[in-house]
Amino acid sequence: MPAADVIIYILLLTGAALSFITRKLTLTGAITGAVVGLLIYKGAGYTGLAMLALFFIAGSWATGWRVNQKEAIGAAEKNTGRRTAGQVLANGGTAALLGGIAWYFPACTAVVELMIAGSFAAATADTLSSELGTIYGRQFFNILTFKKDMRGLDGVVSWEGTLIGLAGAFLIAIVYAVSFGWGVSVCWIVLAGFIGNLVDSVLGALLERKGLMGNNMVNFLNTVVGAGVCWLVS
């Protein structure tokens, strides 16, 4: 076994343990996260892991940012911000599946890496726009009707939150560009993040608010859309 692989495996296990100890993930969430990280590494290498790490760090920070203020308006995540296995799969499951495909079919690696970037761009855009948009947004409106609505509700967005989401998608695009160079792919990744985030809001207003779809499924479809956009443009 290559020494580099051994080091990565140790880092994944250490990261999972620290995530549990610092209360960022539940126990099952930490174990699931390690498996997700392994598949992404096998399929997309160091770049895939870097995108996963960026999403996790940015998402965890945004979730915990001003959590008392979010709790006051009913917009805070359950488990005081600790992510469960379901949440890990909702945000990283698409990337893990793609990583497994690239691991088994190495010829697909190039397009899969772009799709993984698209999935993480969508996940990051959604997490940052919802968590920080709730705090920094000034006017909130329903994504379907464009009428003013109560912040924190499913399908309610703000211009500030949307811009924050675009910034999050761009961060993922930067990680991709560092490895594969600056080009039109950066635009595709940001576009994937924007469209995925938009679809997430529409599903939230159309289905989640009515109890017809859970938040984890909405988030999973968000990442599927992000990956799908990059597949289409590739």
Can you characterise this structure?
By secondary structure, the protein is mostly helical. The chain has one domain (3-233). The chain contains 8 helices and 2 strands. The protein has a two-stranded antiparallel sheet with strand order 1-2. The chain starts with a helix and ends with a helix. The model has no long low-confidence stretch (mean pLDDT 91).
Secondary structure: elements and pairs:
Blueprint lengths: L2 H19 L5 H38 L2 H6 L12 H20 L4 H28 L4 E2 L13 E2 L1 H22 L3 H25 L6 H19 L1
Features:
single chain, 234 residues, mainly alpha, two-stranded antiparallel ribbon, globular
Compact overview of the structure:
With 234 residues, the chain is mostly helical. The protein has helices at 3-21, 27-64, 67-72, 85-104, 109-136, 159-180, 184-208, 215-233, and strands at residues 141-142, 156-157. The longest helix is centred in the first third of the chain and has 38 residues, at 27-64.
